[in-house]
Write a structure and sequence with these properties.
The chain has 22 helices and ten strands. By secondary structure, the protein is an alpha/beta fold. The chain folds into four domains: 73 residues, GMP Synthetase, Chain A, domain 3 (2-Layer Sandwich), CATH 3.30.300; 171 residues, P-loop containing nucleotide triphosphate hydrolases (Rossmann fold, 3-Layer(aba) Sandwich), CATH 3.40.50; 73 residues, Helicase, Ruva Protein, domain 3; 91 residues, Chromosomal Replication Initiator Protein Dnaa, Chain: A, CATH 1.10.1750. The strands form three sheets. Strands 7-8-9-6-10 form a five-stranded parallel β-sheet, sandwiched between helices. A three-stranded mixed β-sheet has the order 2-3-4, with helices on both faces. A two-stranded antiparallel ribbon has the order 1-5. Strand 8, helix 10 and strand 9 form a beta-alpha-beta unit. The structure holds adenosine-5'-diphosphate and magnesium ion. Adenosine-5'-diphosphate (ADP) binds next to helix 7 and helix 14.
Length: 482
């Protein structure tokens, strides 16, 4: 069960001074026990693994996003205060989600067990490494983008597995198997997330790995700056010193000839040295506007497409996000979002965030009605796509009549009723007017359409079979119930 009581901070026992100038994680345990109590320490703090200690920032690995969230909100402030006191400098605690399976055995991780303040030998060595010149490395990674928080489904399992395999090879200290690893796909489908997850996983097991993540745009800007400042040599050294180079949205360097050239050299150099290169783009290598030789090199490793998630995966993503935000959202609201926002995970998340923010600001419960109201703009965009022809086709198939019967003057009941249903749905699900709909049904008068809509509306409460047909059709056409 969750511990909700505030940590006990009084009653603190004096603690042996830290070993040398640093702190010993093991030696901290009594202090943690005294401060937080045995239950909290064992449940929430002992499972955290120290990953790194640099510049007053202590990075700890948590096994899941939920775990990290709990620790963050309940214990990190006190932990930071304690560590600041112990080290005599402001300490910031950063949590990183590292699934247990990807963690190193304690002996393999240089930071496990002890951590040292800035200036201690291992850190000084890291700071002296060329890539640490200010815009390096794990600080660039978004803590949320880990394998643990990535939800998989048919659309992205292959990309996920490939990314994990790249990470696992590097974590074992082996030469890259897929090089470069090239992820491509539409906007907001998780390319950046997967790329950074590789970075996190590698750093979790090998914190000294020189990883560098940057957008192609940043690469471009740094390159231009280096030319202006005449520091090209330093620029070269920095990039050529990395073990894992991640460049996001590589399509941005298309057409930038000098940058392309420099990128190509860096790229070849790193490949030659057996360093891992990971790239993303909005299209596959051969479709990029780049020099041929560069395109062919980019596609020479493993190229994987990330597809738009199917509805089931969208739903799973929403559930995971809701859980990590610690909000209860009714299933019908999640279904509504998953069925309407189909093309982009970022938009899906955005919709969820909007509802949660609204709920927190106004206190109104998140209901289906609220979601429809608040997200009207998103849903409208969806309804607009639906045409009268789509509806006619669907209804004709459903009732097993010919499309031509939608337009024909035939008044036999077996075609007249489905036609009325189609008119009714056209009015409900599109923005078209009565006369306009009439024209799409073989030039019928607008009063005929009005009459059809009225008739179906009257029948719905009394005719459960018809109601079910209408429900099924609505769901098939829009993904939601009427
Ligand atoms: P891209 O780089 O392809 O444009 P991002 O990686 O930035 O997309 O993803 C957009 C947002 O959607 C991010 O917040 C990311 O965490 C989230 N996201 C995308 N795919 C998934 C997934 N499969 N599971 C969880 N979150 C995802
Ligand atoms: Mg991206």
């Amino acid at each position: 069960m969750l511990q909700t009581a505030a940590p006990v901070v009084t009653n603190r026992q004096p603690v042996a001074p830290a070993v040398g100038e640093g702190l010993d994680w093991a030696a901290l345990q009594p202090l943690l026990l005294a401060t937080f109590g045995a239950e909290v320490t064992e449940t929430w703090l002992t499972p955290l693994q120290p990953l790194g200690w640099l510049g007053g920032v202590l990075t700890l690995a948590a096994p899941t996003a939920f775990f990290a969230m709990q620790v963050q909100t309940k214990f990190v402030p006190t932990l930071e205060a304690l560590l600041s006191e112990q080290t005599g400098q402001p300490v910031q605690v950063q949590l990183q989600v590292v699934p247990a399976a990807l963690r190193a055995a304690p002996a393999a991780a240089p930071f496990a067990g002890t951590f040292q303040p800035l200036g201690a030998p291992s850190v000084a060595a890291a700071a002296a490494a060329p890539a640490a010149a200010g815009w390096q490395h794990s600080s660039k990674l978004d803590g949320r983008y880990t394998f643990a928080t990535f939800v998989t489904g048919k659309s992205n399992t292959f990309a996920f597995t490939a990314a994990q395999s790249v990470a696992a090879t590097l974590a074992r200290g082996e030469a890259p198997g897929f090089n470069p690893f090239f992820l491509h796909g539409g906007v907001g489908l998780g390319k950046t997330h997967l790329m950074q997850a590789i970075g996190h996983a590698v750093l979790a097991t090998r914190p000294n790995t020189q990883t560098m993540y940057l957008s192609a745009e940043q690469f471009l800007n740094k390159f231009i700056k280096a030319m202006q400042d005449k520091t090209q040599q330093k620029f070269k050294e920095i990039f050529r010193g990395v073990d894992v180079l991640m460049i996001d949205d590589i399509q941005f360097i298309a057409g930038k000839d000098n940058t392309q050239e420099e990128f190509f050299h860096t790229f070849n150099h790193l490949l030659g040295e057996g360093k891992q290169i990971i790239l993303t783009a909005d299209r596959p290598p051969h479709a990029l506007v780049l020099e041929e030789r560069l395109k062919s090199r980019l596609g020479s490793g493993l190229t994987v497409e990330v597809h738009a998630p199917e509805e089931e995966t969208r739903l799973a993503i929403l559930r995971t996000k809701a859980e990590s935000m610690q909000v209860q959202i009714p299933a019908e609201v999640l279904n509504l979002l998953a069925s309407h926002i189909a093309s982009n995970v970022r938009e899906l998340e955005g919709a969820l965030n909007r509802l949660v923010a609204y709920n927190r600001l106004t206190g109104q419960p998140i209901t289906e009605a609220l979601a429809r109201e608040q997200l009207r703009d998103l849903f409208k965009a969806y309804t607009r796509i639906l045409t009268v022809e789509d509806i006619q086709q669907k209804v004709a198939n459903h009732f097993n009549i010919r499309m031509a019967d939608m337009h024909s003057p035939r008044r036999a009941r077996e075609v007249a009723r489905p036609r009325q249903v189609a008119m009714f749905l056209a009015k409900q699900l599109t923005q078209r007017s009565y006369p306009d709909i009439g024209r799409s049904f073989g030039g019928r008068d607008h009063t005929t359409v009005m009459h059809a809509c009225q008739q179906i509306e009257n029948l719905l409460p009394r005719d459960p079979q018809l109601a079910e047909h209408v429900q099924l059709l609505t769901k098939a056409l829009t993904g939601r119930s009427l």
